[in-house]
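[agent] plan:
  1. take the single chain provided in the ticket
  2. run structure prediction with default settings
  3. attach structure tokens to the ticket
  4. add a short note for the reviewer (M.T.)
[agent] executing step 1
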Amino acid sequence: MYRFSRAGTGGTGQCAPAGRRSGRRAVFVVIGAAALLGAAERPVAAAPAGQFGWPLQPRPSIERRFDKLEHDWLPGHRGVDLAGMAGQVVLAAGDGIVVFAGKVADKPVVSIDHPGGLRTTYEPVEAAVSAGSRVGRGTPIGKLEAGHEGCAAAACLHWGARREAGGRNRREYVDPLGLLHAVPLRLKPVLNYG
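[agent] step 2 finished; step 3 output follows
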């Protein structure tokens, strides 16, 4: 690549390439700005970054947070409670295979195994999927039922996550909010090298 001087007389053709380069840069800046403005005017159905997303849309409020326990056999809160509405569609937080869709102690539950030994659970959810179904992130898995013990909202989704035992690791409950990666949009300045 040659670097052209703007101070040229034009007789050697040195000014034209520099001008074209600056012109191209300006065109890219204008196109980028137009794309950003256009995106702000209409909703875009692009998936956020990361392997996992929220199981309720729009993004729900958190009614009760994860309570890390010293021992798995102690009583506690092994997930998060997300405020929703009865009948609201519940989504798979990530790609995986449904390993359970049924009732546990009279509560409807869906469990999904994800690559890497992670299992997420969703309750109370009336399943629209069955065990063995392959799901992708954002796939509807069922509908939220009203009522969840210990939650102030009329309908709450209890979303849990645990790492399954394997190798030297033991089964461990983890905070499902830690699966989400909120990546902020950052605009970088356009540098003028001319």
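[agent] step 4 note for reviewer: The chain has a mean pLDDT of 75.
[agent] ticket updated
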